[in-house]
Fold this protein.
Amino acid sequence: MNPTSTLSTSRPDRSLTTTDRVARGLGWFSIGLGLVEIIAPGRLGRALGLEGRERLLQAYGGREIGAGVWALSDTPAPAIWARVGGDLLDLATLAVGLRDADSEQKRNAIIALAAVAGITVVDLLTAASLTAETSERKGETGRDYSDRSGFPQGAASARGAAEGITPVDFQVTATPERAVAALEPAE
Amino acid sequence: MKALVWHGKQDIRYDTVPDPEIEEPRDAIIKVTSCAICGSDLHLFHNYIPAMKPGDIVGHEMMGEVVETGSAVNNLRKGERVVIPFTINCDECDQCRRGNYSLCERSNRNKPLADKVFGHTTAGLFGYTHLTGGYAGGQAEYLRVPFADATHIKVPDSMTDEQALFLGDIFPTGWQAAVQCDIQRTDTVAIWGAGPVGQMAIRSAILLGAKQVIVIDRLPERLSMGAAAGAIPINFEDESVVERLNELTDNKGPDKCIDCVGLEAHASGHIDSMMDRVKQATMMESDRPHVLREMIYVCRGGGVLSIPGVYGGLVDKIPFGMAMNKGLTFRMGQTHVRRWTGDLTRRIDEGQIDPSFVITHTADLKEGPGMYRVFEQKQDSCIKVVLKP
């Protein structure tokens, strides 16, 4: 019997963590926002004081959809970190828009800035948490299993113990012996 | 009863589900005493295998005691210990009579769907996609075994659960992977992936008499376990696989290459593997076939590529011209488990091999969902998890 070890986890009866669920929510949110930016850049630009920057908003939409789809994959951490970077870009863009905005646009842009700032905090916490959850291995050197040959009588005696048992329907190697046999004329 | 249930991507739960019942005369019910998490369970966990449904009981490596049999099962007695192969077989159809048990033509109850998707059906599998029957799996307290008179391996009293359990999948899978290479005593066999199936393939290649066995991975604990059996380790994060294989084979390349990785190849520094990762994450490609490409490139002309690693759908940019011109032979498929288990049971019983070497973690079934994460993230040097219901 091999030595074994057990490892307890914080919620062993469920594999999906709260962080996973938040990451998925952010993924769907990202896709939704991206679609709005691609479909209605003009309306969005007018509301936020970003007229003339429709192409930029559509490009941001593409970025949001890409990050959103990736966030729904089995490795969401890079996508959520990408969202953090995107959030900073959004904040900068909204701040630029604020400069030339009229009063209503300013009000909208300030609300948007607050919302993006809030979502940035959520993104940051989620990304950090995902990275911590998936990088528990970091620092581990890997256990040494060099005493586990699996051959109770030793590796040397195991070598070739089953030699030559390949069934006919699994024989696919062109050996010199087989080639000679095939080339020899029938008696 | 309690069971591990699939609810969606990365969402496995320890749930209460209805007890299984005898449905057909050839059925049996097994009280599961040991089961394991397989690498291919992670493909389901990551939702890369299509046609899973929320509520499906997972697990296809299991063994236990017979508690009930259908009226047509005459070769099993209550209390007998059996390992259940992951491929369900009828023993009567043309494919079963040829020994192609994983291609059984009668055991897939969703045959019309499989015929449409695959062209022709494959066998029914436990705890897997509905394309292969959607049968309840064995990470549970009890299991219904269809065609039970044919779908079982009897366990000698002398054998522990830990020694016998892997007869149901990873041992015969590694064995078939090596056997289908038709290994000669002059052969160098290169094996990608030192997970549980890779470990079994290493030992099988050695038993089958390979001159040299090489194992390629990036995790030190897995490489150390491979080296323990006599394989030469290559850590692909530290050295060039192509250069090292050429060094070890006088620039001829390995005669036989075995892919024990499958559709979730690690994104290494190679541009193709990074592209695969991006494409898979953004749903533009279903599988990450870096290992296949590398095997085609490094394999000696006229060599054999053996593929026990699971692929689920479509692979991009396979250098098929290279494979064609080098005259490579591809052998692949799910394992014809029972074709090999008589011989392998004898080899375990005689002490030639003890598959329990691969177990690194043992836990209660209720801890299973957490252990999926431990196995997925290779935490705590985890290589193989056994669960006890």
Summary: The mean pLDDT of chain B is 96. The longest strand of chain B covers residues 28-37. Chain B is about 30% helix and 20% strand.
